[in-house]
From TrEMBL:
SUPFAM superfamilies, per the entry: PLP-dependent transferases (SSF53383)
Cofactor(s) in the UniProt record: pyridoxal 5'-phosphate
GO molecular function, one term: cysteine desulfurase activity
Naturally occurring in which organism (per UniProt): Elizabethkingia anophelis
Signal sequence residues: none
Top-level taxonomic group: Bacteria
Stated role: Catalyzes the removal of elemental sulfur and selenium atoms from L-cysteine, L-cystine, L-selenocysteine, and L-selenocystine to produce L-alanine.
UniProt cross-references to CDD domains, sorted A to Z: SufS_like
Listed name of the protein: Cysteine desulfurase
Entry's family note: Belongs to the class-V pyridoxal-phosphate-dependent aminotransferase family. Csd subfamily.
Catalytic activity: (sulfur carrier)-H + L-cysteine = (sulfur carrier)-SH + L-alanine
Alphabetical UniProt keywords: Pyridoxal phosphate, Transferase
InterPro entries in alphabetical order: Aminotrans_V_dom, Aminotrans_V_PyrdxlP_BS, Cys_dSase_SufS, Cysteine_dSase, PyrdxlP-dep_Trfase, PyrdxlP-dep_Trfase_major, PyrdxlP-dep_Trfase_small
């Protein structure tokens, strides 16, 4: 049974007033709220078994290690990875992408090619640009159509033995577009030996993820966008591929044997997890997975899809309102502007006064904004605890903003 009020009651922050109004939180693509069980998991660690992991023989260290490794196994099942050591803890999607971009450096030669898409978040652009600068490789960008879809047919022409990596997001954070990653991956496998990196930051909160069926080499996402704490994330890497990479950070935890002359590295996953990790946060990612599984991932997807359709229908009733990627297959996001109102943040400020949290601006995707010739958009993004009444409040708020700014 999907009981929205019961779900909402698990999120303490949803009781908050903002500017004297009930909070309507529609900025979930930036970060989601956290249920009580996730907050409790963090507190529990600090109150009852705070100790460093992996090196102590004392009881608390063993409990902490067991809890963190248990969370790794939960994430393994959550994305259907073949092995738990293919699941690396990071501090977010950004770190996962940077880790691979840096660790791949020695595998890239001048004139090799890296392919990304027009729809990427800055964090799936800049690390690859930096890799190209270090190595002399070339960055190619899959173009976008006016409707927000990608021109993936260019891959048939572009893919070759020079292609070393293709990195695309499964769902765009700016527009909510769901990219045809199965088709992209099929094309890449058919015509190259390139690594395939999927930025799953906006997919993991909404869909079932199966990295084996998907057949990607890497899949990165952020714990904080799926009901977990900030400063947490996951990088999945196929073992046979991770084994080809150099370490990213050097330090404690990642060595096998260390002398001043030469250091040998630990095996997976520890080779890529130097230093003391975010133990509480990593444990709490496992709890966020528990939360999502308890609600049911298909329930989450169905509810959010209904919210998206309802929001789009209500918002489009407003004259002069344009939804970007209106007709495309989307998840979790409605990104829009009002005609004649050039500054999206003006709308956002009025909504904020009404207790409605949306994001305005370029959403870390300036190329997309430039494509549409706008400085930014207003973005409402959904999570499982949002309601149809909240969409009504949003719609009324947008109408009010339109009147005030006319
Ligand atoms: C949020 C986001 C990122 C970056 O995630 P961080 O948690 O900030 O590291 C990357 N890609 C997409 C699609 C995102 O939505």
């Amino acid at each position: 049974m999907f009981d929205i009020q019961e779900i909402r009651s698990q999120f303490p922050i949803l009781q908050e007033k903002v500017n004297g109004k009930d909070l309507v939180y529609l900025d979930n693509a930036a970060t989601s709220q956290k249920p009580k069980m996730v907050l409790d998991a963090i507190n529990n660690y600090y109150e009852h078994y705070n100790a460093n992991v992996h090196r102590g023989i004392h009881t608390l260290s063993q409990v902490a290690t067991e809890m963190m490794e248990d969370a790794r196994k939960k994430v393994q099942r959550f994305i259907n990875a073949k092995h738990d050591y293919e699941v690396l803890f990071t501090k977010g999607t950004t770190e996962g992408i940077n880790l691979v971009a840096y660790a791949m450096t020695d595998l890239i030669k001048k004139d090799d090619e890296i392919i990304i898409s027009y729809l990427e978040h800055h964090s799936n652009i800049v690390p690859w640009q930096m890799l190209c600068q270090r190595t002399g490789a070339k960055l190619r960008v899959i173009p976008m159509n006016e409707d927000g879809t990608l021109q993936i047919d260019v891959l048939d022409e572009w893919l070759s033995e020079k292609t070393k990596l293709v990195s695309v997001n499964q769902v765009s954070n700016a527009l909510g577009i769901v990219n045809p990653i199965d088709e992209i991956i099929r094309k890449v496998r058919a015509k190259s030996n390139a690594f395939i990196f999927i930025d799953g930051a906006q997919a993991a909160p909404h869909f079932e993820i199966d990295v084996q069926t998907m057949d990607c080499d890497f899949f990165a996402f952020s714990g904080h966008k799926m009901y977990g704490p900030t400063g947490t994330g996951i990088l999945y890497g196929k073992a046979s591929v991770l084994e080809q990479l150099n370490p990213f950070h050097g330090g404690g935890e990642m060595i096998d044997h260390c002398t001043f002359e030469k250091t040998t590295y630990a095996g997976l996953p520890f080779r890529f997890e130097a230093g003391t990790p975010n133990i509480a946060g990593n444990i709490a990612i496992g709890t966020a997975v528990d939360f999502m599984e308890k609600v049911g991932r298909s329930n989450i997807a169905a509810h959010e899809h209904a919210l998206l359709e309802y929001a789009q229908r209500k918002l489009l009733e407003i004259e002069g309102l344009k939804v970007y990627g209106e007709k495309a297959n989307r998840a979790g996001v409605v990104s829009f502007n009002l005609s004649g109102i050039g500054i999206a943040s003006d709308v956002g400020m009025i909504l904020d006064k009404l207790g409605i949290a949306v994001r305005t601006g370029h959403h870390c995707t300036q190329p997309i904004m430039e494509y549409f010739g706008v400085a930014g958009t207003v973005r409402a993004s959904f999570a499982v605890y949002n309601t149809f009444e909240e969409i009504d409040i949003l719609t009324e708020g947008v109408k009010k903003a339109q009147k005030m700014l006319a």
